[in-house]
Amino acid sequence: MPAKSPSQSSKKGSPSPRSRQGQSPKQSLSSSNRKSSAKSLSPSGKKSPGRQKSASPNRSPGSGKTKSGSPISAKTKSGSPTSRSKIPKEDSPGASATTKKKNVIIKSPELTERGLKILDFSGQGMTTVPASLLNTKDIGVLILASNNLRSLPVEMRRIKSLIKLDISRNGIRCVHPGDFSGLPQELESLTDLEELKISECNLPYIPPAVWRLKKLKLLDISRNKINILPPEIGNLTELKRLNLQQTNITSLPPEIAYCQELEEILLWGNSIESLPDTLPEMPKLRVMALNYRSFCGVVDPYMENLLRKRQINSEHIPVVVFELPALEVLDLECTKLNNLPDVLDMSHNMLNNLPDDIGHLLSLRILRVNNNNFERIPATIGQLENLTELNMAKNHIRHLPGEIRGLYNLKTMVLEGNDLQSLPDEICELRNLETLDLTSNSIHFLPMKFYKLVNLKEAHVYRKLSKHGLWLYQNPLEQPPPEIWCTEKTENIFQYLKKLLIMKTENLQRQKILMLGNSQTGKTSLMHVLAQGKASLTEAITDGTRLLNQMPCKTENNVPFMLLDFGGDSAYEPIYHLFLDSKALSMIIYNINTFKQENFYHMIGHWLDILNCFTPGIVVKIVGTHCDLLSKEESSLEELTRQQEIVCQMVKHHLHDYQKHLQAELDSIKLELDMFDKTNEKGSELSSMQESALKMLHTRRDRLNDILSCPLRVLPKVSAVSASDSLEGIKELMNDLEHLAIDRTLFPHAQRKVPQHWNRLKAAIKQQCGNYLLWSQVKKIAVGFDVHDAELEDCVEHFHDTGEVFWFKKISGFSHILFHRPHILVDLLASLYRHDMNHFLQYPENKVFYSKGYLKPKAFSETKELFLRYGQISRPLINCMWFHLKMENNIIEDFLQLLPLTCLCYTIPETDVTSMQLHQRPLMVLPYYNHDTDLTPLHEVWPEVQPSNEKNLRVMYHFPIIFPMGILHEVAASIQDIVLTRMDWKDIIYATTETAKFLLRKCVDASTNTGTLVLAVRSCDFTVVQEVLKDLMELVTRVLTHYPGLYWKLEIPGSSTTMLLKHM
């Protein structure tokens, strides 16, 4: 056994064992875009219900195909069988004398709504229109599609009653823009003709006769290679539907705007390069259909790749299409869009509803739909998260959807002149609102959380001749009353509503506020200002907080708080985990006057890491102090605003990096699991090592998922205050704290109903004598108030949450103690962990060492050396440290037994050894104060080269994101119950058990705040090595559960580790 050094101790005669149980820790504006298109028309490659297959020359499809000279059956539109009548067919103009006359058999025609005949001669192989047909009276619909017609006869003008004419899929002639050989100009006599279909006729030009049909309402010239739509289109002033699919056009003529009745334009399959600026002048254009072929000529693969990566914006679509005032359906299927216009103005129209698909316009910044007729706002409007202006004035809106809370970038909302009866609470989430116009509605009450709209700073004012701020005129408002809301400042309105909300908030409980930050940042001064309402500045480092100060506080509106001011010195960091509480509000406080970006981590980021480790999910508010030291010049105020913005961005960046590292670890684990699945066939039996490795991966994955699901909830606003006489920013900070305290979403536990007998039980407990109560005593007291078991735990935990008592439920072995006088525990620990320890350890200036410790200069010097180098505290030193607490000897003994349960220290049983003087005998050890780095004794007991007769196992705990400084200290305290002898250094622990020896080593990378904990065990018996290592791993795991947000991964080198992995 190695010789003992001053840092070595024996376990013999140790106190009674302590209980240490483990714990685990395509985009459109309408969903009906296809149905709104013409039924018989479809985009390229999609068959529509009305499209028929073209007949081959000299053949007709279906039952109509015959040999030459045989009768050809004409069909009614319905195709139902009817009686037949024979009509002789005249010779075609170019037929030879030997050509036989054909008889055309037609069915009795159906009738239109006007009583006119519907004749269908499609697919008959005709080369001319029979003369007999031209003499038929009362024809309303004539279908000549899918024949071999090259022209229509002049005699077509006789069919005065014709309403619809379909000559699609024929070979109509038109060799130049003035060619009337295919369609004679006499067709202009058909004054009742409303629909003309000449699609798929292989036309290079549109026959000029078409432009003379002034009554046309539908024109289908699709699938003709016309290249250019002539300006004569403007002659068709009554046109409603225009089909230009696959016509090779690249633009539309400006004259199309003369078609004021036009409602639908189909442009599928064209390479559109531009559209005329006159399109918005078409007030009834509802449907415009474009698809991927519309832009294939201007979007090459290289550009498409840039669009997909969002390296360029999709400016290949003319912006004018988004400015059509009556547009209801904009079909942009596969147009490679990656952005849309910023502004959509559909004001001063007759819109009866807003389509749900408006929520697809994600890039919109400004939406103006004022002066229309709609009553309902679709819930999808909440998806427009980039919206900064929304004008819905002068409609008939009755209520706002709750989804409106998604418009978090909204700055201006105009709702003037609607039928609103009330406002949803969700409107209070629009915290960037600077203007909200509610004039001329029927609102009786404003939401009580209206005070959240902090950027609504003015009311009923104008800015640049436009309304600005909050406008409430011409509403029957009862709450707040007119004397409150008739103002130019919103502060009175908000204060009234907040007070009202607090008054109506039932069961508002005391909320704990944790005040964190470096020393000398003004935490203590700020606490006094918040609690007492007046300045109380600290002046010297000796005035700083020793570990923790507690102070109750109540605002003018009777909102109760318990302020916990944490000492900012690193000496207190090992103790933070006892008092940090994820249910509390945490304030990270920094000095505005000394802040620099390069010091961000030291001043703020470090505290965020601590909270991430101990209290994941906690609500955090950043507060800057000493703002009074800045000059009042505008430049200084601007600099303060810039600093607040910088702090906000750096906090976001810090938290983003933290989450990014966690996600990278999770992705790595998922990749390992995927590789594991691929390399192991399904159903195959896994080896023990594989099962254990898989279990470890799943454990790490689950822990990462848990941590990622509980990010810190950092509030976006950085407050600036002064605790000096000016009290600058204090009132605003108090308002913020009140807002937070009554926010049920952030602190649901703070509004629970507490039974009266709980408060009586609390009073009875607080009246008890002694420094702490055992749980058995608490149970006995609770019986008198009929509080038992689970209810008792719930009750005591509630009073711990409000700061009335300390009950460390989650610390194994410590949960049976209740500190009903919290300050006693704080004072006890603050006497051991001090930021001014060097100032305290002054002899003879500090008389306590002579009068209470009975230490002479030499003995004091040795006592001080043992403490500051090895962390050892002798009885004389402990008596001096706790002298001001005025404790009896038996109380001191109680606390010597109690404190090791915190895992902050360990005690060493006193012996009767007379070779050491009393001041040299260690009674208690605080690992935090061990700064010994002389490893000479270690080389004797743990040679670097492992002896041949010893077996060795080693595990490594890697902390790849954060490595808290207190882990080794807690492990050092926890192993005391299982070791026989030990030697401790700053970063290393060597100890022996009855059967083995082990070494714990801490390796830290200070630049990245990451580290590794290495645990190695040696013994002559490998089974013993395994058993001891397993026990030590369980102990380390228990310690790590004190850090709920800490991520680590375990590495077990070697192959004989199956048993260890199974017990993780």
TrEMBL record:
Q: Which Gene Ontology MF annotations are present?
A: nucleotide binding
Instruction: List, in alphabetical order, the GO biological process terms annotated in this UniProt record.
Output: regulation of signal transduction
Cross-referenced SMART domains, in alphabetical order? LRR_TYP
- Report the source organism: Pomacea canaliculata (Golden apple snail)
Quote the protein name from its UniProt record: Roc domain-containing protein
Residue stretches making up the Roc domain? 504-700
| GO CC list | cytoplasm
Q: Where is the composition biased (Low complexity)?
A: 1-47, 60-73
SUPFAM superfamilies given for it? Answer: L domain-like, P-loop containing nucleoside triphosphate hydrolases
One Pfam match, given by its short name, reads LRR_1
**Region annotated Disordered, chain positions:** 1-103
Q: Which InterPro entries match?
A: Leu-rich_rpt, Leu-rich_rpt_typical-subtyp, LRR_dom_sf, LRR_domain-containing, P-loop_NTPase, ROC, WH-like_DNA-bd_sf
Per UniProt, which keywords does this protein have? Answer: Leucine-rich repeat, Nucleotide-binding, Repeat
